[in-house]
Amino acid sequence: MGLNELLQLRRGRAVWADPSRALATLESFARTEEDGGRDIATAARRVTDVELRGHLERHARDEVRHAELFRRRARELRESGVGGADATAGSEKGYDLSRGRPSAEVDAHGFFRVGLLDELGELPYVAMLHVAEQRAARLFDIHARLTRDDPPTHEIFREILRDERYHVAWTAAMLERWRQRGDADAVRRALKTARTGRAMGAWKRAGARAGVGFGRVLMLVTWVTLMVPFGLVARRRRGGESGWMSARRTRATAAAAERSAARDALTRLRSQA
Ligand SMILES: [Fe+2]
Ligand SMILES: [Fe+2]
What percentage of residues in the chain have a pLDDT greater than 90? Predict the structure, then answer.
């Protein structure tokens, strides 16, 4: 289990233990899925490849349905008395798939905007979808595990997870088809771009969240990896003719040199007398 998954598990436990945060999370997921569905539907109308269009149309319908499932569960929680001002105003930003988007070129689901689909072509768009769907599947798998004590919510995550796995599978199949047609290098580059963008986004997100704490960790790592070895080397060399010396020792050495010079001057005066 990676560090990222451990962090998500930890945060997820806190979310589902707090009904208001759970409600905000469901509503955040609903917005994200709806955004994704809308953009994929637009992309489906623009692509020329018939097979790709079929996958995108089904994919778009899935995302819209996911939004409805999340919204319906959020409504049930509200009707059962969960909510209030805090839940309405807040949203679980950490679970919004829009977090860590590589740039404004990517929509709230982490997909390329359709303008970029026109500009870059179908292959990079599908590569970005593939990476985004892998991430969504991992995220929803975690939430499915964390909501076992809440069967209605748990069932929603399980159902959505099945669709997300289909999204990962069809995008992988399309990329494989391009590879087989001689575009292996283009597929590799597009996946690398998608993953690098996501990795950078995650790094920036971690930095922003941790704030001062992150800076402290960075300073500690720098100190241990650079300053400690350097200091040890300097300490080993202190016995010799060079190296760092403590301020106290430097002052003592200077005083001894002054005394020696004074003795030499006195000796010279006596010999001249
Ligand atoms: Fe989805
Ligand atoms: Fe999806």
Answer: 47
If one compares 233 and 62, the residue with the highest pLDDT of the two is: 62
66 CA from centroid of ligand 1 (Å): 6
Q: Are 59 and 167 in contact (CB under 8 A)?
A: yes
DSSP letter string over the chain? --HHHHHHHHHHHHHHTSHHHHHHHHHHHHHHHHHHHHHHHHHHHH---HHHHHHHHHHHHHHHHHHHHHHHHHHHHHHTT---HHHHH---GGG-TTTT-SSTTB-TTSPBPHHHHHHH-HHHHHHHHHHHHHHHHHHHHHHHHHTTTSHHHHHHHHHHHHHHHHHHHHHHHHHHHHIIIIIHHHHHHHHHHHHHHHHHHHHHHHHHHHTHHHHHHHHHHHIIIIIHHHHHHHHHHTTSSSS---HHHHHHHHHHHHHHHHHHHHHHHHHH-
Question: Which ligand neighbours the alpha carbon of 29 most closely?
Answer: 1
pTM: 0.66
pLDDT value for 247: 60
How much is the pLDDT for 82? 85
d(CA 108, ligand 2 centre) in Å: 12
- Ligand 2 centroid – CA 128 distance (Å): 12
Crossing angle between the packed helical segments 184-210 and 151-178, to the nearest 10 degrees: 140
What is the sign of the dihedral through the CA atoms of 81, 85, 88 and 91? negative
- What is the CA(135)–ligand 2 centre distance, in A? 9
Encode pLDDT of 101-126 as tens digits: 444 456 656 665 666 677 778 999 99
Distance CA(217)–CA(233), nearest Å, equals 24
Share of the chain above pLDDT 70, in %: 66
